[in-house]
Amino acid sequence: MSMNIAIDGPAGAGKSTIAKKLAKKLAFVYVDTGAMYRAMAYYFLQNGIAPDDEQAIAAACPKVDVTIVYENGEQQVLLNGENVNGVIRTEEVGNMASATSVYPVVRTKLVELQRQLATKTDVIMDGRDIGTCVLPDAQVKIYLTASVATRAKRRYDELTAKGTQCNLEEIEKDIEDRDYRDMHRETSPLKQAKDAVLVDSSEMNIDEVVDAIYQIYARV
Predict the structure, then answer these.
(1) Which residues contact 175 (CB under 8 A, 6 or more apart)?
(2) What strand order describes the sheet that includes 74-79?
(3) Fewer Cβ within 10 Å of end Cβ, the chain: N or C?
(4) Are 117 and 134 within one domain?
(5) Is 11 annotated as a binding residue?
(6) Of 71, 88, 121, which residue sits at a domain end?
(7) Where does ATP bind (predicted)?
(8) Annotation-wise, does 17 bind a ligand?
(9) Does residue 21 share a domain with residue 33?
(10) Is 73 annotated as contributing to ligand binding?
């Protein structure tokens, strides 16, 4: 039986960074759900489907298979068996993914594919509703969070390191607004699963968080 680790939490908590490092440590597959949405969006683009044509999108979904495999330690995204790693990171695909991910039929299809992947291999998945909706039977569930101030400072440092001008107070406000939207959305709102372990990373560095989650996993 495969082992599944679900990591949920608000924006800026470091879920993806932590999940990738932990996956490497455990030799699990890190399921990049965002890349899966991009692969599906690429299929729609290749087939001339408009982002606002919900009927055509719904008709196309059954024809799409997206999975993730690892080759030489690198994640490869396969769309109907074809490696699409080199083509799904463009702005055009990103915009299409953003526009089409709002449709329940797209989300339903990808959740189905993510669950199939999780039954076949040991996976780590992160998001807003992995432990509550996508993998409710995951053996390890983590709710990773940090204070708004900590998350804003991390984002501020990340942007300024790239030479981007930004305002710390505005970033804090954006994070607060996003938290509210994520927690109050109608479909799959962000919340801590009843059986999830809370990990607050406000006073921890990346390696300390990875180790804390590893210790939780080791006790299962």
Answers:
(1) 10, 11, 12, 148, 151, 152, 155
(2) 66-71, 74-79, 82-83
(3) N
(4) no
(5) yes
(6) 121
(7) 9-17
(8) yes
(9) no
(10) no
Within 10 angstroms of residue 151's Cβ, the number of other Cβ atoms is: 25
State the Cα–Cα distance between residues 137 and 114, nearest whole angstrom: 13
Question: How is residue 18 written in tokens?
Answer: 């932590």
Structural domain boundaries enclosing 50: 29-121
The last residue of a domain, from among 61, 86, 121: 121
82-83 and 29-31: which strand pairing? unpaired
141 annotated binding-site participant: no
- Does the annotation place 104 within a ligand binding site? no
- Is 193 marked as binding a ligand? no
CB-based contacts of 88, cutoff 8 Å, min separation 6: 35, 38, 39, 41, 42, 77
Give the phi and the psi of residue 152 in degrees, each rounded to 5: -65, -40
Q: Say how far apart CA 130 and CA 58 lie, in whole Å.
A: 23
pTM of the entire predicted model: 0.84
Residues 80 and 34 in one domain: yes
Tokens representing 217?
């996993």
Q: Is 13 annotated as a binding residue?
A: yes
Backbone torsions φ then ψ of 199, nearest 5 degrees = -125, 115
pLDDT of residue 73: 75
Number of domains forming the structure of the chain? 2
Give per-residue pLDDT as tens, 15-43. 989 999 999 999 999 998 888 999 999 99
